[in-house]
Amino acid sequence: MIPEALLSQKDLELVERVREFVAGVPKELLAQMDNDEVRYPKDYLLEAGKRGLLGLRFPKAYGGGGLGWREELLALEEVGVLGTSLACLYSLISIVGEAIVNFGTEAQKERYLVPMLKGQMGAAEALTEPRGGSDFFGATTRAVREGDAFYLTGQKRFVVGSEGADVFLLYATLDGIDDPKRAMTAFLVERAEGLEVRHLYGLMGTRGGGTGRIVLKNVRVPIENVLGGVEGLGRGTEVFNRMMIPERLTSAGGSVGMGRAALEVAAAYSDKRKAFGEKIRRFQAVSFKVAKSVTLLDCARALNFTAGELADKTGPTGQTRRFVSEAKRFATDAAWKVVNEAMQVMGGIGYTNVYPIERLLRDTRLITIWTGTNEIMDLLIQHEYFRELLSSPKKTRNVEEDAQGAEYEEEKVYE
Predict the structure, then answer these.
(1) In CATH terms, is domain 126-234 a member of 2.40.110.10?
(2) 22, 179, 334, 340: least buried by Cβ within 10 Å?
(3) How much is the pLDDT for 308?
(4) What are phi and psi for residue 72, nearest 5 degrees?
(5) What is the pLDDT of residues 61-74, one digit of tens each?
């Protein structure tokens, strides 16, 4: 956990409020979700809304907390101990809300954002398509305009929260525009006739979050439900670029909580379990795994806070995208490694449902894939780094010139 000496009194009060909320989530709910007996826990979001814990970064005028990414990341770590499904459902309000706050009309904010922050309206983001995956601009969902409305046809899949969502942030391309980057448009689509949610997925983990496929058959969406109204037509690419920040940073924040939960269980176990007359934490094979895991999580948390501060100060710049991608990649990888190490510390009992490690292992496997695979994060990181390196004048010492043979230009052959 982050050292309390680094937290303000308001930070500590927020963390305590979130911990009280998390402590009140029934263990039976976690089991029911993991068994697919509960597919969308509406009461969970309603309770979070009642406690004023949704939309921490959004204006108080709409029911938000008026805070920043630092505070949201503190909250996400605490929620993350519940596992991926509940952390993601909590995060969806932050993700969809980001689009409405930054691009929505005043009417859209009142109609959707206000009840979302109260936990009274479920939201989901419909991004991925059956043939698309990480290829966002390969989307085939089309929007055909007729008068004062659009008619949407297509499919979206892996939509977390679709089972209980009342409104979907959904991307489609405008008919008649060949360039997908100019045609892409974001819509706020209410659950209605013609929009069918098919709960198709038997997931390895991350169950109970209502993950399904959406099929749209000529769904009528009034023009006022284009995100941003008429001015939002063709701005889907801009929305998408902004949305990648909360999508990935919320994943990073929740990941630290998931890893922390597994580590705490395994470390406590190692202080009780004895072998060869010693507590197993006395053996370096165990204690070094704990040390490595603590360090990974501390590093992930620090990188998350850096990315969050940058997002608050500069918005969706190239440098922000790089740090957010680094945070998502590092934190999700760290959580996966820490949970694996926790299972190794516990041995065979960790592979059973006597402890929650096996559920966390199944949960954390997904977080390295969703909101952009970690390989896509690598692409973004190197792209933004090279752009920054090669386009900016060098402000630091030219270390290349420190080589004793630096003057031998004839040896520097590049082609």
Answers:
(1) yes
(2) 179
(3) 97
(4) -65, -40
(5) 999 999 999 999 99
Ranges 37-51, 60-74, 80-94, 224-238: which has the least confidence: 224-238
Q: Which CATH superfamily is domain 4-122 in?
A: Acyl-CoA dehydrogenase/oxidase, N-terminal domain (1.10.540.10)
CA 321 → CA 110, 242, 271, 379, 383, distances in Å? 29, 9, 41, 11, 10
Number of CB atoms found within 10 A of residue 235's CB? 17
pLDDT tens figures, 242-260: 999 999 999 999 999 999 9
* 73-103 pLDDT tens trace: 999 999 999 999 999 999 999 999 999 999 9
Domain segments of the chain as ranges: 4-122, 126-234, 237-391
Q: What is the pLDDT of residue 392?
A: 81
Give which of 189, 162, 41, 65 is closest to 118, Cα–Cα: 65
**Which two structure tokens, joined as six digits, stand for 151?**
């008619």
User: CA 238, CA 242: separation in Å to the nearest integer?
Assistant: 6
237-391: CATH number? 1.20.140.10
- How far apart are alpha carbons 30 and 41 in whole angstroms? 10
Closest CA to 80 of 237, 291, 304: 304
Q: Which residue carries 């979302």 as its tokens?
A: 116
Sign of the C-alpha dihedral, residues 69, 75, 77, 82? negative
Instruction: Give pLDDT, residue 3.
Output: 85
Q: Is the pLDDT of residue 181 over 90?
A: no
pLDDT tops 80 at residue 135? no
